[in-house]
Amino acid sequence: MRTMCGCTKNNNLQNPQGVILRRRCVCWYEPIRQVKRRCCNNELEGMSLQLINSCETIIPAGDQIIFDEIAFKNCDGMCCHKQNGTIEINRCGTYQIDWDIAVECCKKSGFARFGVEVNGEIVANAILPTTSGQLSGCALIQVDHLPAKVRLINDTGESVKLSGFSPAVNLRITTSS
Predict the structure, then answer these.
(1) What is the pTM for the complete model shown?
(2) What is the rounded CA–CA span in Å between residue 162 and residue 57?
């Protein structure tokens, strides 16, 4: 950049508004662009899945819920296979999983239990101590080996009838990048 005169001094000044002015020469000043720096990039990423058309679906013991709607997704590191309901995580990190299930009936045991299974191992359960109502649960998982396969399964030991309300099941999985 050319200066307007032959000055070589580069003393900076600050005006009353706090803007630092770089001295290009004894007779000309220009503002210095101040770049805001980020300490970290903690953006929340995730996916929200739902079972909308439950039509009072019966989930047999040990079976997983197959979602029919991806309500929201802003992460390339995970996907849901609609054929079998498995969520695949393709990026290491810590993930929080929350779920809500509207249960209509589980007569034999008198309770309902659904759990999150990661790579074939149940890591968290939520229990509804009555035969019908809203069951909610959450899990915090650490993914170190890829890909991680996540499923929401009926861990009651008997078939559970889901409510006809829509959506009958919500699942949210989030992580910060």
Answers:
(1) 0.72
(2) 5
